[in-house]
Amino acid sequence: MSSFIRISSRKSKVDAQSTRILHLFSSGLSSFLYKFVGSPSHSHHIVSPSSLFWVGSRCRHFSHHVPQDNILISRSSFIENIIPLCGSNSFGNTNFSHRSRRGLVFASQIRFWGSQAASEQSTSDGLTVDGILANNWTILDENEGDWKSHATAVAQSINLIKRRLQWRKLMVRLDFLSAQLDKQDLWDDPVHASKVSREHGSLAGKMKEVIALEQELLENIDMIKLAREENDEDLESESMKALLNMRRNSREKELKALLAGEQDLCSCFIEVQSGAGGTESMDWAAMVMQMYKSWAQGRGYKVTVVEEMPGEIAGIKRATIKVDGEYAFGYAKAEVGVHRLVRISPFDSNKRRHTSFAAVAVTPILGDASAHVQINESDLRIERFRSGGPGGQHANTTESAVRIVHIPTGITAVCQNERSQHQNKASAMAVLQSRLDQLEMARQAQLNAQHTQSLTDITWGSQIRSYVLHPYRMVKDVRTNYEVSDPDSVLEGDLDGFILSYLSACLDKDEDGA
Amino acid sequence: MKLSLSSVYRSSNFPAILKSSAFSIPCRSFCFSSLSSSQTSVKAQIPLFLRPARCSATLHDLKKWHDWAKNLASSIGLTFEQSDNGPDSSLLCRELKWLLEDAVEDHTLLPLMGVQNDDKRVTMRAEVDELYNLWNQRIHERRPFQYIVGCEHWRDLVLSVQEGILIPRPETGHIVDLVSDVVSKDDELKVGVWADLGTGSGALAIGISRILGTEGRVIATDLNPVAVAVAAYNVKRYGLKEIIEIREGSWFEPAKDVEGKLSGLVSNPPYIPSKDISGLQAEVGRHEPRVALDGGVNGMDALLHLCDGAALFLKPGGFFAFETNGEQQCRALVDYLENYKSTRLCNFEIVPDFAGIQRFVTGFRRQAI
């Protein structure tokens, strides 16, 4: 017999242990199940990716670490630089000579871009992006060479991207952060300060990208009009080509905006837990896990099994994989929830139809160490696998599983796949860390009323998708009604349709008229 | 060069039971390359994962082997576990995965196995034929996995191990933590000379030397020339030759020069009572050296000798930690220390391992008055 043993105190009695431990183990499991499968209202596990938009360390265009001396430069000295930036035709303004003199000044300018900076841009004859949309021009095929079609398609894209970025909230937040950055005492708390400046940099970067897009669109329209007035065919075709390029690239930009959340870029853990129902549901859990492994490998992510608890006859009771790669969390977060299978069970000798459930959890692995929740060593109980019997020199085993329990929250993490206890402990700690980080993010999201919208309905508890193999064949997402009639391809990892339709549904329904 | 078993066991007086089982291992086609050791004529084997990748196989052949090996592992079920607390199928399957990882140079090719590119060749550290042999040994002879791959992942180290030396146990790692605690409270111990007696693979000596840093010294002794060679290999691999000195000989004998000078003394001596040897798990009883397991009638022969030596060899304030067979031995040892050694040694403590079994006895040499 083997079991997990807790190190309780130095005086623990050996003989009473196995039973106590077995109890501990099974009750631990059931509370785990309760937490993750049976308790949809459990606020702890609400992920609020809207919070993803607020803490910005993923800015691709601006330095994460704006040097302090630039941060502290007074606001007024930059206002004059910023205002022209916001007008559409002012890039030649001489004020930008500042930029060449001081390499990083541009980055710190961005922080003063608040909502006032995003005032509406227009062409020389007053056409705005909203104006283009309001015209309701028919969108013809790309090859038609009709600038109105191109412009409308691009304007629609810009609109969609703004919605996905939650444009209005982004402006409000940016104003708020700018005000924070202006405070004299900001750097008294360097951790907070760097958080604020990083987030500001990231949001400003996103905003700048959209504004640049709008500007490019309007400039191209201006050029086309100008070219027509002056009968300059070269200029016209050049500008038309530029517009067409914008149209062609807009899909990609829309997609990127879907994954603009703070943690979206992170790698993640995917955890699958079988529901009630014995071997049939354990087999289903294994199928779901296999689906994610194939999906992740298909996307070129690196997949590592962290932990796997096999079922007695088939399948798995539970398993965790680590998915390494860009945007792993951004995509996988759309899979959180309960997955339902209907089929004739191969484990039922009477060939009856069974319904089984598997729960999926996804946690981001934060790349930024300063964002981690501090874990007190004394809050942890570390349980190691041991074979029964006297141990020590009596036993030779390569089993080195480690389970870590975070006592205050009851959250546990197990790793058994590494070759030494040391490594297993390190891996289990990484899982625990990401779970606690996620818990903390959810808590903060709830504190902030602005964060409560958007993807908050993601919980372990809610059913998100049905896979029916009998009497008909179909996979249907109950959140988006997206469906596919070929379950095999889905189970082989073809999930992108489901994921993208869900992500866009979540973000696009929000912020009407942004 | 092939390691000759007879030369390994020649010098020690091995009980017949071990001799017969040791020689019952069929002559292996799998032969490790060897590394010469300065101390003795015995060669340390290079672990599989460090061998040059000179072999190759097609994905098809590799998959065929893997399927065969997996089937073999699955067929075991709970048989070993029920007979002597040995590994079950799932554990064997995990070992199989690790064997594959150690044997194949480029791990990214493994997921391709059986998918396509059947004729694609994979660069390997062993021939597929050898892998068949090794896995047969693992299942049919219960040869420990660590001997199969030639290494044990112990704490944050990967230590070379081979027949003739004890495979370090996870429990023993706790001694390193105990030393770490003591050293963090007393800087003087950190810069002194420590000793690991009966070092085997050198695990404790290496673990401790990494705590002491560059200012400490560790003397590691073992009477078994194989252990001396393997420990030297491991010490060299971790770049600790300047800190750890390995000496061949029984317990304190090769360390006479440091009598009364040691800052610390650690050991995982043989402690299993002789009568229990025959009932051991097959991996242990049939393959690991009896000299590293058998502690005499009540298992305490070496432990008592170590306690006597601790009283003489430690300097005032010096620390000792020994691993034992469990609660009974811990109590008996503390009784012995209190009754016979309390004039020189003090602050005895019994420390449990991670499974809650009372496993270690620790104490200090009294400060000079």
Structural description of this entry:
The complex is a heterodimer of chains A (514) and B (369). Chain A has helices spanning 17-38, 68-71, 76-86, 97-101, 105-109, 129-134, 147-164, 167-182, 190-229, 233-258, 278-298, 328-332, 421-447, 487-491, 496-508, and strands at residues 2-6, 267-274, 302-310, 316-324, 337-344, 353-365, 380-387, 402-406, 411-415, 463-468, 474-477, 483-484. With 514 residues, chain A is of the alpha+beta class. Chain A has 2 domains: 2-54 and 263-507, Alpha-Beta Plaits; 68-258, no CATH class. In chain A, the strands form 2 sheets. Chain A has an 8-stranded mixed β-sheet with strand order 3-4-2-6-5-10-11-12, with helices on both faces. Chain A has a 4-stranded antiparallel β-sheet with strand order 1-7-8-9. The longest helix of chain A is centred in the middle third of the chain and has 40 residues, at 190-229. Chain A starts with a strand and ends in a 6-residue tail after the last helix. In chain A, 41% of the residues are buried. Helix content of chain B is 38%, strand content 18%. Chain B is an alpha/beta fold. In chain B, strands 9-8-7-10-11-13-12 form a 7-stranded mixed β-sheet, sandwiched between helices. In chain B, strands 1-2 form a two-stranded antiparallel ribbon. The radius of gyration of chain B is 22 Å and the shape is elongated. The longest helix of chain B is centred in the first third of the chain and has 18 residues, at 59-76. In chain B, 51% of the residues are buried. In chain B, helix 3 (59-76) runs antiparallel to helix 5 (89-103), helix 3 (59-76) runs parallel beside helix 6 and helix 8 runs parallel beside helix 10. Chain B is built from 14 helices and 13 strands. Chain B has 2 domains: 48-149, no CATH class; 170-365, Rossmann fold, CATH 3.40.50.150. In chain B, helix 11 links the parallel strand 8 and strand 9. The A-B interface holds A 2, 5-8, 10, 12, 14, 17, 297, 310, 382, 384, 386-400, 417-423 and B 81, 85, 87, 90-91, 94-95, 98, 111, 144-146, 153-156, 166-167, 169-173, 268, 270-272, 276, 280-281, 283-284, 288, 292-293, 323-327, 350-359.
